[in-house]
Automatic annotation (TrEMBL):
Keywords: Hydrolase. This is 3-oxoadipate enol-lactonase. Its EC number is 3.1.1.24. GO terms for biological process: beta-ketoadipate pathway. The gene is catD_3. GO terms for molecular function: 3-oxoadipate enol-lactonase activity. NCBIfam families: protocat_pcaD (TIGR02427). Residues 22-246 form the AB hydrolase-1 domain. The keyword Hydrolase applies. It comes from Achromobacter veterisilvae. The keyword GTP-binding does not apply.
Length: 259
């Protein structure tokens, strides 16, 4: 297993694909880990050197004390790229991974080639909602909350048709440390990029989902409309679109990055 000891965190990461291919960074959603991209790797690794990592507080990465910010989460990625000797990369982030990409595109634009923002928004949820989520985790634990949370991640039809793959996501969420999850909720509570995204210069694709309640299609269209030249794609899925429609999602990523 590969770890990078950075200034504030220890990140677990995994790399697939040719060493001489363009680098694509994949950034996980809240409550998952690098494994959430497993269904994309066989195809993406034909075209890219794919770098997946566990966001701090998730998976095999460390859980620094205190609340996190997207400045910290973005700097983790910048330091990971420096650690690996990567000067520039494409970036694809889903849900919480989206604001990480927004921060990088705004604060460290020299690092970002093309940007893909999936099931996300410039402002996800409300401060009150994230504070309530933090309180709920403290009272109930992710172990008990996971099944209900995953109901919001996938459509009813998918969960009925694919109970095994649904269970994989439930178990991934259950393995997420409560402390790390809550510290990342604080980053989402405090983040609002709506006044800044018009300054993004990276070519951008926004992917939303018709049935996503966490980051709605309206928010996705708003985000795409605010970023100069951004494209918008909507899939007939819920919040974890890459899991529910892996072929369509992967094809959209490959087409956008290789055209």
């Amino acid at each position: 297993m590969s770890y990078a000891d950075l200034s504030q965190a220890r990140l677990y990461y995994v790399i697939d694909g040719p060493a001489d291919a363009p680098v694509l960074v994949l950034s996980n959603s809240l409550g998952t880990c690098a494994d959430m991209w497993a269904r994309q790797i066989p195809e993406l690794s034909k075209h890219f050197r794919v770098l997946r990592y566990d966001t701090r507080g998730h998976g095999k990465s460390s859980i620094p004390e205190g609340e996190y910010s997207f400045e910290q989460l973005g700097n983790d990625v910048a330091e990971l790229l420096a650690h690996l000797g990567i000067a520039r990369a494409h970036f694809c982030g889903l849900s919480m991974g989206g604001p990480t990409g927004l921060w990088l595109a705004l604060a460290r634009p020299e690092l970002i080639g093309k940007l893909i923002l999936c099931n996300t928004a410039a402002r996800i949820g409300s401060a009150e909602g994230w504070s309530a989520r933090i309180a709920a985790v403290a009272e109930q634990t992710l172990e008990n909350m996971a099944p209900a949370l995953v109901e919001r991640w996938l459509t009813d039809g998918y969960r009925a048709a694919e109970p095994g793959l649904t269970r994989v996501l439930i178990d991934m969420l259950r393995r997420t440390p409560d402390a790390g999850y809550s510290s990342n909720c604080a980053a989402l509570r405090d983040a609002d990029f709506r006044e800044q995204v018009a300054s993004i210069s990276a070519p951008t694709l926004v992917i939303s989902s018709t049935h996503d309640l966490a980051a709605t299609p309206a928010q996705g269209r708003e985000l795409a409309g605010a970023i100069p030249g951004a494209r918008y794609l909507e899939l007939n899925t819920s919040h974890i679109s890459n899991w529910e429609q892996p072929e369509a999602f992967t094809r959209a990523v490959v087409d956008f990055l290789t055209e």
